[in-house]
Amino acid sequence: MLKPKVFIHGIVNGSYSTPFFLTRFKEVMYHYSALFDIIDKTLPRADEARMILERDIYLHVVLNVIACEGSERIRETRELQEVEATKQEGRL
């Protein structure tokens, strides 16, 4: 069981499940452009942690939301009740 000293809870609120490509594309662009602005200000471009974050995490999430349709889409959403239960139990 994890016992973090600090817990930062972020919720992504976007229309990622809409069947319309343009809406999904705009939502992803708004969200990830803000994240990349933060990364640009805090990590140098050659930083290994930044490259891992961009290549191994963000790349797959963005491609999944934008490029995949129907059953090809992987939705990694959790119900609010599940998130709240996890927080209450300390299994962060």
From TrEMBL:
<protein>
    <submittedName>
        <fullName>Scarecrow-like protein 9</fullName>
    </submittedName>
</protein>
<keyword id="KW-0805">Transcription regulation</keyword>
<comment type="similarity">
    <text>Belongs to the GRAS family.</text>
</comment>
<dbReference type="InterPro" id="IPR005202">
    <property type="entry name" value="TF_GRAS"/>
</dbReference>
<feature type="region of interest" description="SAW">
    <location>
        <begin position="67"/>
        <end position="92"/>
    </location>
</feature>
<dbReference type="Pfam" id="PF03514">
    <property type="entry name" value="GRAS"/>
</dbReference>
<keyword id="KW-0804">Transcription</keyword>
